[in-house]
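@channel sequence for tomorrow's demo:
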Amino acid sequence: MDARHYSPLHRLSRAILARGSEKLRGTDWWAVFVEIAIVVLGILIAFQLDSWGERREQRRAERLLWQRLAEETRNDIAVLDNVLGQHLESAENYRLLADAVANPGRQVDFDGRGRATCNLLRLPAVQRQSSGAIGQAAGSRLELISDPELRKLLRQADANRIFSDRQLDFFRANFLRYGDNIEPHMLWRFIDNGRTACRVNVDALRADSKAVALLPKLYRDQRQFARYRAYEVQSLRAVEKRVLELINSQS
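structure tokens (generated this afternoon):
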């Protein structure tokens, strides 16, 4: 078809296409590619910087948590060691008291322990600094712990804590019942500055067959509960060791 016979609209569209073709032929495609690449690279770098910043913040938060864990664990171990010592002291008192009852000549060993003999019925609670799953990072903070070994140790320590605390209620109920037989033979009095002193009337206890029969059981119970607290200490020491390893690895 001759150009003279094209409609005005047809001629206009052909002119636009011709000019577009000229622009495309004159385009620097390498420059376009470079510009696109720069834009894409900038976006990727921005995402990567955000990711690096987030990971850095997570590492910082986790390190702070490790430091808090180390402090809490160290303090809880000190408290538990003290409580464990009280259980063992009480168990030893029962052993010496049973010896004194069976052999009056051995009473001097029991009397020589002084005021410590009056912790026979004591089952102390543990005033931990941490609050469950060791307050220590379990619970809402556990997801911040990325180290699987530490997470496992924390769960084990928390399981030991829960078990011994529940057993404490059981043992206390028994000790409260046994106290009806033992406590009448524990003589308390006030001394200077409002302090109290106590001694066990071994002669009277020796004549009380029910009280005498309870001594081996109470000794065994104190030793058993001391084992529960020892398991707690052992699991906390494992947590402390792992936490310090992680802290030192980033020093």
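heads up for whoever presents: DSSP finds six helices and two strands in the chain.
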